[in-house]
Design a protein that fits this description.
Protein name: Glycoside hydrolase family protein
Keywords: Hydrolase, Magnesium, Metal-binding
Cofactor: Mg(2+)
Structural class: alpha+beta
CATH superfamily of the domain at 4-296: Glycoside hydrolase, family 65, N-terminal domain
Distance between the termini: 29 Å
InterPro entries: 6-hairpin_glycosidase_sf (IPR008928), 6hp_glycosidase-like_sf (IPR012341), B-phosphoglucomutase_hydrolase (IPR010976), Beta-PGM (IPR010972), Gal_mutarotase_sf_dom (IPR011013), GH65_N (IPR037018), Glyco_hydro_65_C (IPR005194), Glyco_hydro_65_M (IPR005195)
Oligomer: single chain
Family: Belongs to the HAD-like hydrolase superfamily. CbbY/CbbZ/Gph/YieH family.
Helix content: 25-40%
């Protein structure tokens, strides 16, 4: 059931993970999925209740404290516990426990489409008393302070006395984890009970933090419907209790209503405020609450739902992720989205740049009003960011913290924390994206302009000119395994975007509303020269580029380091941060997460396709993905480049990371940024959606494993629906004014009630040369045979098959290994042997004429031309041009890609991707034709339709196979392409 997360077994090993997975929240209040009755003594539980942004201040201990190091950190506190409800059966008061007696049936469910969780249990006590228990719990989306528990007790063979003891407990502490920087290692108990009591048949606990002096109260009331009962309210020490006793003769329903109120959001007497809110529920039932909850959740899913036809596990994953984001997103000026949401205590409940880059995009295109609130939270912390910039020695600008709750920096380790200056650029980027996606001019004038100005000012103060380039030194990019370096590509690129947009925003506002501009100009003490300086610095921004590798280096010195020894790193040593000193990691080329690759996603127009692809290939080999922020970005960029199998594999890692606990720390809370990243991998990856100044565009390519993908989005006061299938894409305007956009590279005009259908069309056929167009394979065989005979190495046609589709040097190496002579020649001697073979080969191909074109190929070429299908050649031979000229085909092909123009040979997809890129067509609109297994693998890895020439058993991955070249008939190829692509 893809709308329901279910658990049907009680495994002690999984309890902590399930507490996180079954957590409930509403953006303000969060409760972990603990059992109301508790666990068996000795079992670890992180029994957590959290109020977003409700924190204490904790002194940071330093052995040596230097200037600018934060004095304190803010820590999200485990708040008053109202989860506990214990049930006792019979005069002897046998306690209900899943760890005693017999569990006759057990089911635990989280209803993503209804907004509540439940446990349904058939239990027999050690003394033989049988009951059914139905636990339901709900945290209201419409009344943020409300957490309700409902328990139905149904007798099976037991009729008699029952006692229910409901507790509100202020004796709570935070979870402490040793030797893991992702979990707090100290400061467990920071909440002190100041008052317990009862009033108006309600019980309460009031508590205060140790240092921040924030206060919170939990007020609870209880009811049992349609049965006589006795109720005794008590309070002592740090807790208050309600004890209810009755005779169980029929099913009984017990409800506990809990209200949480704090001094961040409420003034006056908290206890009275809690009681006042409780009274609004005196005539309500739990089912009334669920009806309102259902309505709210249904409204959310109207735009947020993603439907995947073809994989129930991934469908469950994406819906679970989106629901948890809904449960965790802060909805007021005090709160944001913590790294673990409200599901656990990992990272101290802090907010990171994860929000702007990984989570805001989800809400921006589904619930833009929620994205707006998150941006306003950052605006409210702007003054703190100005102060932090001054503290860090800057004369101007706003420096936002790496991790925070109230706005102050919490990071005590500056190399991978405070040095991440890119965060100010990330926040500016999200403001720009919000404006582009919504067209919200009032927001740009009231909030956006000031944010862009202050972040731009920071870059001017941080950077400097050198060799007529604007450079930024001593910063850390997103990759936390490479710290405090000069000219981090990501940082410089985001700073450039920030600077140019600050200039642009001022100009836009000035042109559109001069009065508003003058107010901003005056309020921020701007000058025309300062605004021009932003443009000048942005245009002069230095973006590292390596001519030899044709990539963007991560920073000035990254490529000078040795590459990490991945082959000899034990699997159990990942994540590396838990097993190696930071300095060890800093000395190597090893990335914790996407850095330059992330910049290429966010700011793809800064580089051409080849640089983006080459960089991806380079960084993929040295990225550990120890951060959960990484795989989704590699999935998105794999989709862009055309590595569709990789894109899908990375998406799988992302979509079920917490459900399958692949990072091994789900117990500490769910990975919120990764959850946003899963949505991004679909919308920005598979659907190829981009929002730029030029408007909205989509380049959709559905994974071959799925039949259909459907999602909706909001864009500039419009609602759109995208349906992707294997053969077509449908785009519908559900609400709003007509608009122009790009779909599959075409300019389209979308209107209400006039859906646009774009069918998948074949645009190009990419041919291999040897064995497909002509039989130069025979010449290769003869040339290699002559060389092998000279070296006294046995060589026959059967072994020659192993050389198909691979480079000359790779072929030579195989031959030498075959003859056990791989160590007899130096590299220069091997080069000479390869050249000798090539000279012989050239002599042979000089005899080629058009008569050597294989049967059926001329007609296939004519038919392609007739049907306006573009043609490309993708050959591993460096002599492809010579061969094509001899065959008199050089003018028939639009593009020729050979071994001289690529870095990686087949089965790497580079040669086919390069051909598609040069043709300027999507890979899904291409057919590749090959006669070698390595070539077929390359075609499929590129995401193209693969046609094999030869025996079927040779081409397991081919989409269509013919035995002979003359069976390459245009009509048959087209028919199979549209039927099976």
């Amino acid at each position: 059931m893809t709308w329901t997360l279910s658990n049907h077994s009680l495994s002690q090993e999984d309890l902590l993970n399930l507490e996180s997975l079954f957590a409930l929240g509403n953006g303000y209040l969060g409760v972990r999925g603990n059992f109301e009755e508790g666990y068996l003594d000795g079992l670890t539980s992180i029994r957590g209740t959290y109020q977003n942004a409700f924190h204490d201040l904790v002194e940071i201990p330093y052995g040596e404290k230097l200037y600018g190091f934060p004095d304190t950190e803010q820590k999200l506190l485990n708040s008053i516990d109202a989860q506990t409800v214990r049930i006792f059966l019979g005069e002897e008061e046998e306690p209900f426990s899943l760890f005693a007696g017999d569990i006759l049936s057990y089911e635990r469910l989280l209803h993503l489409d209804q907004g509540f969780s439940e446990r349904i249990i058939h239990w027999r006590s050690p003394a033989g008393k049988e009951v059914r228990l139905h636990f339901r719990r709900c945290i209201s989306f419409t009344t943020r302070e409300l957490f309700a528990i409902d328990i139905k007790i149904e007798p099976i063979n037991f009729f008699g006395a029952v006692k229910i003891v409901s507790t509100v407990n202020g004796d709570v502490s935070n979870y402490v984890g040793l030797n893991d920087p992702r979990v707090s290692s100290d400061h467990g108990k920071r909440l002190r009970v100041s008052q317990t009591g009862m009033k108006d048949e309600m019980i309460f606990v009031l508590a205060e933090t140790v240092a921040s002096k924030l206060k919170t109260v939990c007020v609870s009331q209880h009811c049992i419907k349609n049965i006589d009962y006795n109720c005794d309210l008590t309070h002592a020490g740090s807790h208050s209790e309600c004890t209810m006793t009755f005779q169980l003769t029929k099913p009984v329903q017990f409800t506990k209503w809990n209200i949480y109120v704090d001094t961040l959001r409420h003034e006056g007497n908290l206890i009275e405020k809690g009681i006042e809110l409780q009274r609004t529920f005196e005539t309500k039932t739990f089912d009334d609450l669920l009806a309102i909850q259902k309505q709210y959740v249904t409204n959310f899913w109207e735009m947020a739902n993603i439907t995947i036809d073809g994989d129930d596990a991934l469908q469950e994953g994406i819906r679970f992720n989106l629901y948890q984001l809904l449960q965790s997103v802060g909805r007021d000026e005090y709160s944001n989205i913590a790294a673990k949401g409200l599901t656990g205590e990992g990272y101290g409940g802090h907010y990171f740049w994860d929000t702007e880059i990984y989570m805001i995009p989800v809400f921006l295109l589904t619930k833009p009003e929620m994205a707006k609130r998150l941006l306003i939270y950052r605006y409210k912390k702007l003054e703190a960011a100005r102060s932090r910039a001054k503290e860090m020695g800057h004369k101007q600008g706003a420096l936002f913290p790496w991790r925070t709750i109230s706005g102050a920096e919490c990071s005590s380790y500056f190399p991978s924390g405070s040095a991440q200056y890119h965060i100010s650029g990330d926040i500016a980027y999200s403001y720009i994206q919000y404006f582009l996606a919504t067209g919200d001019w009032p927001f740009l004038k009231q909030y956006g302009a000031e944010m862009l100005v202050e972040t731009a000012r920071l870059w001017i103060d941080v950077g400097h000119y050198h060799d007529e380039k604007f450079k930024i030194d001593a910063v850390t990019g997103p990759d936390e395994y490479t710290c405090v370096i000069n000219n981090n590509y990501y940082t410089n690129a985001i700073a450039k975007y920030n600077l140019l947009w600050a200039y642009k925003a001022c100009k836009l506002i000035k042109d559109k509303d001069s009065e508003a501009f003058l107010k901003i100009f005056s309020h921020l003490a701007l000058s025309d020269d300062e605004i021009i300086d932003w443009k000048k610095a942005g245009e002069a921004m230095y973006l590292p580029y390596d001519e030899k590798l044709k990539i963007n280096p991560q920073d000035d010195t990254f490529l000078q380091k040795a590459v990490w020894d991945f082959d000899n790193t034990p699997t159990e040593n990942y994540p590396l941060l838990l097993h190696y000193h930071p300095l060890t990691l800093y000395r190597y080329q090893v990335c914790k997460q996407a850095d330059t690759v992330l910049a290429h996603f966010l700011l793809e127009d800064e580089q051409d396709f080849d640089t983006i692809k080459n960089s991806y290939d380079y960084y993929e080999k040295i990225t550990t993905h120890d951060s959960s922020l990484s795989s989704c970005i590699f999935s998105i960029m794999a989709s862009k480049i055309g590595y569709h199998e990789k894109a899908y594999d990375y998406f799988i890692e992302t979509a079920r990371l917490d459900l399958d606990n692949t990072h091994g720390n789900t117990k500490d809370g769910l990975h919120m940024a990764n959850m946003g990243g899963a949505w991004m991998a679909i919308v920005f990856g598979f659907a190829g959606l981009r929002i730029k100044e030029t408007g909205l565009s989509l380049e959709p390519i559905i994974p071959k494993q799925w039949q259909r993908l459907t999602f909706r989005l909001q864009y500039q006061n419009r609602k759109l629906e995208v349906i992707m299938e294997q053969h077509q894409v449908q785009l519908t305007l559900l609400d709003g004014e007509a608009l122009s956009l790009k779909l599959c590279g075409q300019e389209v005009f979308l209107q209400m009630e006039q859906p646009i259908f774009i069918k998948k069309q074949l645009q190009a056929i990419i041919f291999d040369l040897d064995g497909v167009i002509t039989n130069t394979a025979e010449f290769h065989y003869q040339a290699w045979k002559q060389l092998a005979d000279k070296l006294n190495i046995p060589f026959n046609r059967e072994f020659n098959e192993e050389l198909k589709g691979i480079s000359r040097m790779e072929s030579l190496e195989k031959i030498l290994i075959h003859g056990n002579r791989q160590n007899d020649f130096s590299n220069s001697e091997k080069m000479m042997l390869a050249a000798e073979k090539n000279q012989q080969y050239i002599k042979l191909i000089e005899e080629l004429t058009p008569a050597d074109i294989l049967p059926g190929i001329k007609q296939l070429i004519r038919d392609c031309k007739k049907n306006k299908i573009m043609l490309a050649l993708a050959s591993a031979s460096k002599n492809a041009g010579t061969v094509m000229k001899a065959l008199e085909l050089e003018n028939d092909f639009d593009v020729v890609v050979d071994a001289k123009t690529i870095q990686n040979g087949k089965p790497d997809p580079e040669i086919f991707l390069t051909a598609a890129n040069l043709l300027n067509v999507e890979v899904s609109s291409c057919i590749g034709i090959e006669d070698a297994a390595a070539g077929i693998k390359a075609i499929k890895a590129a995401g193209m339709y693969a046609v094999g020439v030869g025996k079927k058993e040779t081409f397991e991955k081919a989409d269509y196979v013919v035995e002979k070249n003359d069976e390459l008939v245009f009509e048959e190829i087209i028919k199979h392409y549209y039927a099976n692509a």
